[in-house]
Amino acid sequence: MAVTIVVAGKGGVGKTAVAALLIESLSKKGVVLAIDADPSTNLNLALGLPLGETVGKAREDITEAIQKGTLSPTVSKQDVLDMKIREALVESNKIDLLAMGRPEGPGCYCAANHMLRLTIDRLAKSYDYTVIDSEAGMEHISRQTTRDVDVLIIVSDVTIRGIMAAARMKELIKELRTKVGKIVLVVNRSRDGLPQEIQDAIQKYGLELIGVIPEDPYIGELDMKGSPLIELPGESPLRRGVEDIITKLGL
Amino acid sequence: MAGIFPVDVGPQYEGEVIRKADLYVEFGGPNVRSKFELVTLKGLDEVDNEKIEVIGPDMKDMQEGGSYPLGLMIDVAGEKLEKDMEPVLERRIHLYANYIEGLYHMNQRDDIWVRISKDSYNKGLNSLEEIGKILMFLFTSELDVIEKISITFVTDEKKVEELITKAREIYKARDERARGLREEDVEEFYSCALCQSFAPTHICIATPERVANCGAISWFDGRAAYKLDPEGPVQEVKKGDCLDPIRGEYSGCNELAAVKSMGTYNRVYLHSAFEHPHTSCGCFQAIWFYIPEVDAFGLVHRDFAGPTVVGVPFSTMAADTSGGRQVEGFLGMALEYLRSPKFLQADGGIRRCVWMPKEIKEKYRDAIPEDLFDKIATEEDVKNVDELVEFLNRVEHPWVKGEVELPT
Ligand SMILES: Nc1ncnc2c1ncn2[C@@H]1O[C@H](COP(=O)(O)OP(=O)(O)OP(=O)(O)O)[C@@H](O)[C@H]1O
Ligand SMILES: [Mg+2]
């Protein structure tokens, strides 16, 4: 119950694509909370869902109300935030989507962020899976959840730089307060299997390779038509690759 | 509880979320304007005991998946009940409603959101009356002080709209009363260590008359947070003995400061900027700063980018104030604290304020005595301390004229 999966990696490697297919596949096994942690909020497009209010907007609203001193003195701000977050949730059949939106501006958000984490953690408890599509980079992971992450999927492209970035991420995550159960590597958009150099690098950095997803010829057409990625056909390499990862991870 | 009611009831259902896909109907929430709940204390002869009334359509008459208005009114009576308990009892609606299997309740007052699941509807939770029976059972079995209770559900939109206006007046009156809560009235304060990453030795104290430095954690928030997460960064502080009612010195706060600062500070004054002022993290909304030339204080908030009357901007001053130290004459604080009756009372309070940005003066106008309002300089009136001295003499600022007496 309540498995938390984070999809991370450097910019443009296919985090959102992998996360979207992961969310869709998992939604056949249970209900999924999809969290779009990228300020450019594009997970909803990949999932074919509308965009709701963002968590960032809720945080701004409450911070502004605090600044102006307009809130009732007795109504707890945690309750107000709980409500705002539920309102921001985009609900569909098996998938509910929450977009984090822009990070905070200058000023103090310690309390607001703490309350938000509590709200989101409690919300996540009632889902079978929580899948977080990260923004490129790492430091935000600790901001998003106080809960432990069960699986961190680092996506890389077929470059040495990509693998090195993944290795750095793995090191960094150890310093964060969030506990991470399993860290695995997915190499995306390969053309003819994995070149020897890449295989060597993966071994050298001690990364656990869980899947290699080939370049997907179906994506171009969907992108052209502006259709959501989850419409990929059954034989799509991305879809099959993600399903294979789910099996290997035993999710 | 099975058998008595169509669905199960118990604390295990708290936190249960009802998703849109599992929803039979919902009341209130973002799609509905007219919604509220209210508990009213009545006389023993005024409550028609155990009566449940539904005014307007009931769930059976509603469309599956629909969103409907709701006014939930609970009247209670009992010898030992007091008017002050109304908000506490009202909060119990949230708790008890969430005990019901397949029912989820959020928030309070005129911003509620209630969902009923298809499963529970099909099990027989198909009428507001059934919900009323369960609520009534929980209220009376958990709270002995309630001798009589009646529950009314209003789903007729027009009627809800009418009733809301009255409810809002009551909420407002309660807020006024809450603002009247004093440190003397409570035994517990709350401490907050949320900013520990910025200032490990800092601990913020929230009392009914002092909101935490960031403005986000009031005494009420502290109480709610502590209940929700007793192991969390917000903790209860037994206030202990009041050692100095004017400066706001309490034995419980002193002990806490000593532990947190590892012995660096063993005294803290909650309502003075001198000798043992409250420590400041990095998160304060504003800084209250001493201006020696006039032996008075200025106030500057985080959003004020320009230089203050003493020449330095907020950011420079913040660096000197923050870090969990007691810096005499510099106090990080929440703007809401301006509204406290104990606002730095030991030093002369707001009457010792001689400068603040215009924005704050406008936003917190209600916290400034009328006769003082025009005598506090802003960035538009003066640019430096020389001009300030001249200004204060011209407007005959009460502190400068020696008219403000310090409490003893
Ligand atoms: N296996 C694949 N085959 C072909 N195209 C792919 C594949 N995976 C991803 N893409 C395409 O690569 C582009 C970048 O992918 P995506 O947006 O998922 O990356 P990202 O890591 O989420 O990027 P960002 O860092 O901007 O969030 C998209 O146009 C996507 O459709
Ligand atoms: Mg992305």
SS element count, helices of chain B: 10
Distance between the termini of chain A: 10 Å
Q: Determine the most extensive contact between two protein chains.
A: A-B, 38 and 51 residues
CATH topology grouping of chain A: Rossmann fold
Largest sheet of chain B: 4 strands, mixed
CATH topology of the largest domain in chain B: Ribonuclease HI, Chain A
**According to CATH, what is the class of the largest domain in chain B?**
Alpha Beta
Shape of chain B: elongated
CATH class of chain A: Alpha Beta
Strand percentage of chain B lies at 15-25%
Order of helices and strands of chain B: EEEEEHEEHHEHEEHEEEHEEHEEHHH
The strands making up the biggest β-sheet of chain A line up spatially as 3-4-2-5-1-6-7-8
Number of strands of chain B: 17
Named CATH architecture of chain A: 3-Layer(aba) Sandwich
Q: What's the tally of helices of chain A? A: 10
Identify the CATH architecture of the largest domain in chain B: 3-Layer(aba) Sandwich
Q: Total strand count of chain A, please?
A: 8
| Strand order across the largest sheet of chain B | 4-1-7-6
Overall average pLDDT of chain A: 90
Question: Spans of chain B with pLDDT under 50 lasting ≥5 residues?
Answer: none
Percent of residues of chain A in helical segments? 40-55%
Outline the fold blueprint.
The complex is a heterodimer of chains A (251) and B (408).
Chain A: E1 3-9, H1 15-26, E2 32-36, H2 43-47, H3 55-68, H4 77-88, E3 90-91, E4 95-99, H5 110-124, E5 129-133, H6 140-144, E6 149-156, H7 160-175, E7 180-190, H8 196-204, E8 209-214, H9 219-225, H10 237-249
Parallel strand pairs in A: 1-5, 1-6, 2-4, 2-5, 6-7, 7-8
Antiparallel strand pairs in A: 3-4
Helix pairs in contact in A: 1-10, 3-4, 4-5, 7-8
Chain B: E1 23-28, E2 35-41, E3 52-55, E4 67-68, E5 70-77, H1 86-99, E6 103-106, E7 113-117, H2 118-123, H3 128-142, E8 148-154, H4 157-179, E9 188-192, E10 204-206, H5 219-228, E11 234-238, E12 242-244, E13 249-250, H6 251-260, E14 286-291, E15 296-301, H7 314-321, E16 330-333, E17 353-355, H8 358-363, H9 370-373, H10 385-395
Parallel strand pairs in B: 1-4, 2-5, 3-8, 15-17
Antiparallel strand pairs in B: 1-7, 5-8, 6-7, 9-10, 9-11, 12-13, 14-15, 14-16
Bound molecules: adenosine-5'-triphosphate and magnesium ion.
